[in-house]
Fold this sequence. Notes:
By secondary structure, the protein is α/β, with parallel strands linked by helices. It has helices spanning 63-84, 113-117, 123-138, 185-192, 200-220, 259-266; strands at 2-3, 22-25, 30-33, 48-53, 104-108, 146-150, 156-161, 166-172, 284-290, 300-308, 313-321, 328-333, 340-348, 358-367, 372-380. Helix 1 (63-84) packs across helix 5.
Amino acid sequence: MVIRVQFHFVSVLLIHIFIGYVYSAGESNVKMIIPPPVKDLGKDYKLRIVYFVPSDKQIRRNYKEKTEVLMRVVADVYNRELKANGFDTEGLDFEFDDKGSPLVHLVKGKKKSIFYRGDPLDLDHLLNSQQQEIWEQTGFTRNRPTLVFSEAGPVAEARPMPQVYSGLACVSASALSDEVTSLSIVEHIGRLCQSANFTKKQSQVSQTTNGVIIHEIGHIFGMLHDTSDSRNIMMRGYDNLGKMFNSKYANQRPVRFSKAHARIASFSRFLSKSFDMSDDEPPNIKRFKIVSPVNEGDQTIKVSIEISDNSGLGSVVVMQRGGGQIDALTGDFEPKKTEKINRRFELKSPKNFVKGQPVVLIMNCMDINGNLAQSVLRTNVNPKKNRSVE
């Protein structure tokens, strides 16, 4: 059996257009889809937003207002794409302040930028050092994955912490600049859609920057990279994010989450509508191994897996790690809430293997109550004449 990512097109109208929701932009008459305001959904599992400013950096004007504009785009993409893939959701929830506005925690760093990012850049230290100070000032983040807009330097990285239903997604605070994000949601969508008021370059910078935020948050929900379709957000499909908000293209889903990634995200506690909070046991991955040699010229890998869960399995995805544009989702299995999987699969690589190539497979498993487990498998490609597994 060859596991492939399957794309299912739901025959429903994805975009409901009504008065006040579609606008004509400038002379180009682009009909834009404006995301609705984010609302407090009253969930126990919310996304926390932090603006991190080292001691040698200035606080940007209007950072709260711009963050709210960006989150309207983020929330709308998740809501629309999960539903387009057939999964019901109330959408993402955020922390709110006493006035009913999305809460943005301003965390003033104790050190200068160079301390956090390192010289040369040290991503682990950047994430660790910021996370420590964020916890000190905002509290421990159980049930609160944190999206950080960082002034410490250019970064786009995510670190899930599934054991406490949390994680850290860190992006550059350049997303809050006037060149990237507008104060008005209508103007910002016009920027993404490249209305008459914006150049192609201005629009592209905004689309990519806004899209990276959506992408990095996806890792917190169990999503991996996926180069199987250039439209995938977990590839670089977000470079065309503006098309999602242009009514001419939106129904075609020009930017999307794959069915596999929408499924695993739909079981996370941040997007699922129903789960048992008392269940905090992740799936038990008893076996994940290669069962036959991976040889030069092959394009498939035979693996054996055994996974069990006390409540039922929701989703299993496998990615072949390759770096750059090679990371590919090679496995997608829908357990249909069964409590155990014990079988062999054949994973199809996007390219034929070459002699000596390192092969890294990453498997994410999520149960029906939003508990995530991961296993990593490594091997090397053998020359054709060598039939043994290294």
